[in-house]
Amino acid sequence: MAALTRSRRPAGARPPGQAPGRGRRRSVPLAAGGVVLVVACALVFAEGWLAAGHRQPVLALAQPVAAGQVITAADLETVRVSVAGPVSLVPASRQAEVVGSTAAVSLPAGSLLAGSDIGTPPPVKGQVRLGVALKPGAYPPDLAAGQDVDVLATPAASASGSSSSGGAPAALPVGEAVVLSVSPATATGGSGETVVEIQVAADAMPQVAAANAAGQIALATIPAGG
Predict the structure, then answer these.
(1) What is the tens place of the pLDDT at every residue in 67-78?
(2) Sign (positive/negative) of CA torsion 127, 193, 210, 157?
């Protein structure tokens, strides 16, 4: 009968195939380094994702334009950029407004379009532009560019109290206009008058200019659909 024998391992001996304890201790800093690398990569990815999320579609020039040149749709293209700082770039949503405007300065192809690069569109045939100085109370407080207004010739101060019927003379309409820009009184040298650029029919220009020269002019907004 065969005898069974059992070998004994000396105290502290490792089983066959067991890695030394030092290998386990070395794996701890390696694992920590891997975690740091993963976190760093995640932060870089997150930063890039956020930057891409803040890229806005703006207008740029597909071809060069000269100062005074009318901008056409073929001159424009849309690009996405990260907008930061005080630069006022023109959003792509305003393309319809930009087409037909004039370039205020000469610009090469690829230039991002800023608000200051765009001039006012040329007046249509039969229309003229002029600036009028309005006294406080001679225009609506919410007057803004793009509004349709009636231009009124107001009575002289001496005539306002000399009406035989006892009532103040009425202001007379001299034409209709479109407001192009409004310069508040604070920007007109402290005169207290607000300078408004308007576009009127050429045949109404003499009356409007005369009322403005006499300081007897006012604007009244025309209600929508009116």
Answers:
(1) 778 888 999 999
(2) positive
